[in-house]
Amino acid sequence: MKPTTLEIEFLGTGTSTGVPMLRCHCPVCLSSDPRDKRLRTSAIVRYQGARLLIDCGPDFRTQMLRASDDNLDAVLLTHIHYDHVAGLDDLRAYCFERPMPIYARADVMRDLHQRIPYCFSDNPYPGVAQFEEHVIGDEPFLVEGVRVEPIPVMHYKLPIVGFRIGPLAYITDAKTIAPEVVERLKGVPLLVINSLRVADEHLSHMCLAETLDIVRRVNPGHTYLIHMSDRMGLHADSHALLPDGVELAYDGLIVRV
Predict the structure, then answer these.
(1) Whose CB among 33, 79, 108, 129 lies 3.0–4.6 Å from 104's, allowing a Cys bridge?
(2) Pairing of strands 131-136, 100-105
(3) Which residues of the chain have pLDDT under 50?
(4) Strand order in 74-76's β-sheet?
């Protein structure tokens, strides 16, 4: 019987610049607390025997070297931005026996062909990463026998996806989430969702007040915040900002449901 417990390991919880940010000398970027060191956002979800990587950014190699388990069965991509796909070339170590299955929207697949064409060549250079392409739409799909439901959200004007996997809903880089999508998520046991910073609205990312409004409406069992900049503040002070049941995730955190 396949295990029913879901495990998510946060490989990175930072925004596109990472934390510490280059040339920044704020208290967060200078912090010695390892929870304030945030690589670009990515996670491994382990459920029913499948090991699914969500996004593969520029810190992928470093993240996998320190992960608790470096085995992967497939990759789910939320969108095409650099901080979510720049590590795909490093998947070559996973492609010795077969191409790595990769699941993404059609626009993301198209852009990947343009960015890393050598990975999709009919006559690839020996040793490059190769992918088994799976184009996803709005309907649920199966990965290694696990049902994955796309969660459509808007990243400013760019349609992107989060993912519902068993008891987990994972959303990153959202600015707006339609009311009908919020309705679908109500009562989810574990919500992982982006929150860029405490104050000041951002063009394409939710900040804390916006994120907490979604959390209130979804009413999940527990919530972890991801895709955070240094302006989210020190992890040690976060309890003063957050309601019960909401926490900042941090790199290396493993949560089981």
Answers:
(1) 108
(2) parallel
(3) none
(4) 131-136, 100-105, 74-76, 50-54, 42-47, 7-12, 254-256
Q: Are 214 and 206 in contact (CB under 8 A)?
A: yes
Number of other CB atoms surrounding residue 205 within 10 Å: 23
What is the rounded distance in angstroms from the CA atom of residue 106 to the CA atom of residue 71?
26
User: What is the rounded distance in angstroms from the CA atom of residue 250 to the CA atom of residue 39?
Assistant: 9
This prediction has a pTM of: 0.97
Q: What is the pLDDT of residues 122-165, one digit of tens each?
A: 998 889 999 999 999 999 999 999 999 999 999 999 999 999 99
Pairing state between β 168-170 and 158-165: antiparallel
- In what helix (H) or strand (E) does residue 52 lie, and over which residues does it extend? strand 50-54
- CA-to-CA distance for 18 and 41, rounded, in angstroms? 9
Closest C-alpha to 184, from 150, 207, 158: 150
